[in-house]
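Q: Give me the 3D complex with S-adenosylmethionine.
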Amino acid sequence: MDYLELKITCLEDFREILIAELAEIGFDSFLETEEGVDAYAPEQEFDREAFLELIEKYKLPAQISWHESKMPKVNWNEEWEKNYDPIEVDDLVFVRASFHDPAPGFQYEIVINPKMSFGTGHHATTYQMLKHQAEIDHKGKRVLDVGSGTGILAIMAHLLEAQEIEAFDIDEWCVENGNENFDLNGLSTRMDIGTIREVNPQGKFDIILANINKNILLDEMEIYAELLDSKGFLLLSGFYTEDIEDLLECAAPLGLSLYKKNSKDNWAALILQKD
Ligand SMILES: C[S@@+](CC[C@H](N)C(=O)[O-])C[C@H]1O[C@@H](n2cnc3c(N)ncnc32)[C@H](O)[C@@H]1O
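A: Here is the predicted complex, encoded as structure tokens.
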């Protein structure tokens, strides 16, 4: 499969937003560089019109320029090793790759070799999901991780002593990478592939984790509500602070009420509780 590579030059402050926006339109891997971001999309999934709209939305190319080329998909491990620094989520969680030294003093340590998947804790959404998870009692609980990426949230659930964890993602590389990360962190669960409708999880869950994007969360909210046990928690992220109201409006008639909300760098995260 051919990949489209965009080498984007842009201001440092703009990179995180840009990566999130590109992820919405078919890009599935990113490398931050000295100049900006290298972004990669499977050629057939690249939505050129949406990309041009994005450029227009941010009044680009005033802020960025880009160079487009085609390339085969490769293993990004070496590049990641150059670019990935460990991350601390407050004093609580230390996320590192297996080639980094462990850091003593943290309650939880997660080993993520990210390759091409999203989810190291660097992004504000993952960061807030990890923090919210630590505030919810996972011990002995049944947890569903929707859009698992690197598997980081499922691994956190394991560290928080969840009893049973199901995780899935639509991206086959995430599944491959996620299962490697599960092995690295002693989690025997296998990541499944597909959407929630395709995977069709059975039974009730105490906790559902979903850090995806606004449209998918709105579309799947009813399914999350059906799968949640009474008093169960739904942890959401992947949308902007200004979208919180839309999410809450969709959740309320399904018996999901606000338990906690948080924002970081204009990225929002919610904890909802089922009646
Ligand atoms: C923002 S990343 C989150 C990864 C990780 N859970 C985290 O919190 O860092 C979203 C993930 O959801 C996956 N995804 C997108 N749409 C999905 C869908 N409809 N069902 C399941 N996974 C989906 C993407 O492939 C991506 O890995």
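A quick observation: The mean pLDDT is 86.
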